[in-house]
Design goal:
Helices cover about 50% and strands about 15% of the residues. The protein is α/β, with parallel strands linked by helices. Helix 1 crosses helix 7, helix 3 packs parallel to helix 4 and helix 4 packs parallel to helix 5. It is globular, with a radius of gyration of 20 Å. The termini are far apart.
């Protein structure tokens, strides 16, 4: 059955590959980007199967207008992909207020505005699938990405609550958590805080670690997302890439071990009612 998609940040990276994967199998796509000219090749190749819209997801009124335009054109939207976002690189001490607020405005609030604008429509049609593009950095945190992690951990918490709230309306929610992929996330689309020399050794170690890991293929990620949106019971969370599947085992085991080691303090913190 043909699906109709709404994808933010479709100019490049994951967003572009998600749009291409959907269009190449015959689906319909509302593709959005800050600069609508970056979507002209999609329009040229796929014609009326694409509705290209200029959209800055931090502009809440513009989001509402784009959602209205999507329903005016296609009447029914099956899949909403909150993909627009970028990486903020910098140690916590290095980050400026402006950089952190801008990161949250795009990665978190942008996804929130799109989600809220769609929910009345999805509830009315009794179906829909909201796909939030998170990251393995929404599960674990790493040096030099504190601001980015803050935005994605906020999105993860919001989306887990959302999934429970809307399940009764026939709406699914999935958090896609990719590892490193060959996109522009760490390139020209990234923002870098002014470096403090005190952290030069940390930066050098991080650079070596990143170079040692082979990035995933964004084209394959596009095809993988089709399997998620076609599933009768899609997952709340899904990892993209082989590296995250190994990493999460270590992260969660480490947390379980720490909680167990300090469980006596946990019970003591509750007072006498903690005694069984």
């Amino acid at each position: 059955m043909t699906k109709t998609w709404f994808i933010t940040g479709a100019s490049r990276g994951f967003g572009r590959q998600f749009a291409l994967a959907a269009l190449r199998r015959g689906d319909l796509v509302v593709a959005t980007a800050r600069d609508v000219e970056t979507l002209s090749d999609l329009q040229k190749e796929f014609g009326d199967a694409v509705l290209s819209l200029a959209l800055d997801v931090t502009d809440r009124s513009a989001v509402s207008d784009a959602v209205a335009a999507a329903f005016e054109r296609f009447e029914h939207i099956d899949v909403v992909v909150n993909n627009a976002g970028y990486g903020l690189f910098g140690m916590v001490e290095e980050l400026t207020e402006e950089e952190v607020r801008a990161q949250l405005e795009t990665n978190f609030f942008g996804a929130l505005w799109v989600t809220q604008a769609f929910l009345p429509h999805l509830r009315a049609q009794g179906s829909g699938h909201i796909v939030q593009i998170s990251t393995i950095g929404g599960v674990g945190a790493f040096p030099s990405l504190g601001g980015y992690h803050a935005s994605k951990w906020a999105l993860e918490g919001l989306s887990e609550s959302l999934a429970q709230e809307v399940a009764g309306f026939g709406i699914h929610v999935t958090l896609v958590e990719p590892g490193g992929f060959a996109t522009d996330w760490g390139g020209s689309s990234a923002v870098h805080a002014a470096p403090n020399p005190a952290y030069d050794d940390v930066r050098a170690a991080l650079g070596a670690a990143r170079r040692a890991n082979a990035p995933g293929d964004p084209v394959a990620a596009g095809d993988a997302l089709l399997q998620i949106v076609d599933a009768t019971e899609p997952p709340l969370r899904v990892l993209f890439g082989s590296q995250p599947t190994q990493l999460v085992r270590h992260l969660y085991q480490q947390r379980l071990d720490t909680w167990a080691r300090w469980e006596h303090v946990s019970h003591a913190a509750q007072g006498n009612t903690a005694q069984r």
